[in-house]
Amino acid sequence: MSRATLRSAARLSWLLVTLGSGLLAAPLAPAQVVALETDPGPVPLDGDTPGDAAGTADAADVAVEDALIAEERAREQRYVTWQLDIRGVDAAQAALLRRHLDLARYESLAEAERITRIELIRLLAAAPAQARKLLETEGYFNARVSTRIDETDGTAPVAGDKPLALKVGLDIEPGARTEVGEVRLEIQGPLAVDAEAGDADAVALVERLRSGWTLPQGSPYTQSAWAEAKAAVITSARAQAYAATQISGSVAQIDTAGQRADLFVVVDSGPRFRFGTLRFEGLDHVRPDAITALLNFETGEPLREQTLLDFQDRLVKSSLFDNVSVLYDPDPEQAGAMPVTVRVSEQSMQQATFGVGASDLSGPRITLEHLHQRIAGFGWQAKTKLQVGRSAQSLSLDLTSHPQPGPYRNLIGAALTRTDASGLRVTNERLRLGRTQDTERIERLYFVEWQRAMTRDLNSGLMTDDTKAGTVNYHWVWRDLDHPILPTRGFSLSAETAVGRSYASTDNGGFFSRATGRLTGYWPLGASWYGQGRVQLGQVFARDNVAVPFTLLFRAGGDDSVRGYGYQTLGPTDASGSATGGRVLGAGSIELARPFSRSTPAWWGAVFLDAGNAAERWSDHKNAYGAGFGVRWRSPVGPLRIDLAYGDLSRRWRLHFNVGVTF
To answer: What angle do CA 408, 405, 296 make, to 5 degrees?
Structure first.
């Protein structure tokens, strides 16, 4: 019962008691009856004067009213907490309301902020209007909202300073959702002029902007989708050389009765920006021509965002810089020749690194590496690397020029390696001279090479082969991946070819050729599963009596071949059981993986099946199989793989460990 009702009831009760007592105590004279009928004021009790009775009644009435007011004021000033119950909406709408309603935001703060009941009532009174405004942002323009408060214990005494706990609710009827009706996208400015003049790029961009509109007719209207659609138009136009594009006008006409939103947008393209001069910041020991050699555009070309990103990627891949940014300030006054700033942070002139690790090839290993960015004052990098492992050791020196037009980089390399595998100790000496070209998706390597491969039986210590060869080589890698280091979708294809002549100490030398190819695919499977497949083929073409260096022949087995077997333990052997290289190779793999949980997206579990082998000829080829399971950690530097695999021929489990992606 409200405070006003309580006061009125108290006054009426007091009046009835007073009147009833006076009428029963003394009969009224005719004159008194008339007075009563005309002025029903306070009637004195028997033995009291009229003035005394009136004073007593007024005092009692005031006392009751004051008590009620005091009680109501005390009740209004009580501290409260509450639980908010929202009904009639789906989970997304309820989440929106709980995130933005004052009534919801103060729910968790009520006790700490010492919110009173009267303040809660104010919040509750404002909630319907707030809720309707929030639902309008989601396209519900006819929502009905009512509030409720459960005060069944509102008058119950509360010990000490403990707040009163209440239940508060919103009952909502959101109504029908508004859908997009007519959409008009008008293009103004130089883009429209160019398109009308028949410029092919401008016509294609206008069509792309209109066909790519993300809030088409019939789709649900929301304020966020409306804003995102306009932003997408701006982003798309700016990426295609119109860097000053903006929305010059937009209207969303809402028909609340018909649940329809008609959209009208005017896009002002601004001028088409073109490449101007390059400005360099941060250069010290790297010459500017090393940067200009990597340019993928010419002065006067349209300044497209993707062109800049590709140029920036080339600079990053050059291994000359720690940080690279390519940027410009889109000033319409300079649109015809926009200056572009290349801001870099160079790598240290000299770098030395020390590493420890393990792999199926080398076992435990340590690595020492030194990099000089500009050897002897020339534009060449020098990279020296020493790796010492239990079953593999190597020493290499690679000289690589700074980028040159093309973009190409010249290279000179020398390496000495020794590997123990399959009962053999293989020593390889190599000299290489060539050049490389790296673009956004394709890597090319051209080189001539001289090498010498010596094999020695680990049991007898006898030399089993000593073959030299000179070759002309071409390596090619193509990638179309969603991420260069941690791919989950796309393909990569690599191919290697070589033509040369061998010189052998034990067999006949002669001409030969060699070709290998490897296709790797990545694809998502549903919400959280991912697949990976690999196929690898290789063959050496030569007469049977022509010797080929062991390092150019094929063996299978290991982390990146057929798991469940040791490195290069699969392939043909001689009469004594020592490994010999095969002239054909066929291998493949299929793998399924998924994250362990949403809270640990970098950690995956995987199952896999590998198959493959090397042989003297295809008629002798017979697959060996390996199957197992493993753990993946998708680290920033590449995936770390730990696998446990069982080989059907070895009949044993084998642990494999690897880091990185092989193309």
So the answer is: 100
